[in-house]
Specification:
- This protein is of the alpha+beta class.
- It has 2 domains: 110 residues, Alpha-Beta Complex (Homing Intron 3 (I-Ppo) Encoded Endonuclease, Chain A); 46 residues, no CATH class.
- It is built from 7 helices and 7 strands; from the N terminus they run αβββββαββααααα.
- The longest helix is centred in the middle third of the chain and has 11 residues.
- It starts with 12 loop residues before the first helix and ends in an 11-residue tail after the last helix.
- About 6% of the residues have low confidence.
- The protein binds zinc ion (ZN).
- Zinc ion binds next to loops.
């Protein structure tokens, strides 16, 4: 991962700013700038920084482009709690610890780390396969997502428990 020291503010920062803004869609109601650029599988919004060429988190790029006061080791925290928002005035520079605390409070790190399958026992999976009702009913009954239910019922997950 790129550290902040590796990034240089180019003289033509306006060109970078225009390219950055082209990847955003401004939402008038909330004031949020919704990121339309690249998003990794893990859900991280990335922006191609030109000097030197590398991708950086879009929120960091935003703070850099508009505030330019992001010190090494500092993190960026969302003030509007819209995870796709890169509006620099909806972002705040904070310490790494504060950034992690906010992430933990939102439950996102936890959700991302927990493999959905690890939350269900083999018996529960068998019960889901023989349960009656819509996928939504079953999801509510077992407190899991509809997607997880569908994965189980369609045999995409917990393959080892499928009847032979
Ligand atoms: Zn916002």
């Amino acid at each position: 991962m790129a550290t902040i020291q590796d990034i240089y503010i180019p003289e033509d920062i306006n060109a970078v700013r225009l390219r950055f803004e082209a990847f955003t869609k401004k939402d008038d109601a909330s004031g949020c700038w919704i990121w339309k650029g690249s998003i990794t599988k893990a859900g991280s919004m990335r922006f191609g920084w030109p000097y030197p060429r590398q991708t950086v988190p879009a929120t960091r790029a935003s703070v850099f482009i508009y505030h330019r006061d992001l010190a090494a080791g500092m993190d960026v925290r969302s003030l509007c709690h819209n995870e796709r928002c890169v509006n620099p005035s909806h972002l705040m520079v904070c310490t790494r610890a504060e950034g992690m605390a906010q992430l933990a409070a939102s439950g996102k790190t936890l959700k991302g780390m927990l493999q959905p399958r690890s939350r269900l026992s083999d018996d529960q999976v068998r019960a889901i396969r023989s349960a009656k009702g819509t996928h939504g009913d079953i999801a509510a009954q077992f407190k899991i997502s509809k997607r997880t239910v569908e994965g189980i019922l369609q045999g995409r997950s917990w393959k080892h428990l499928l009847p032979k």
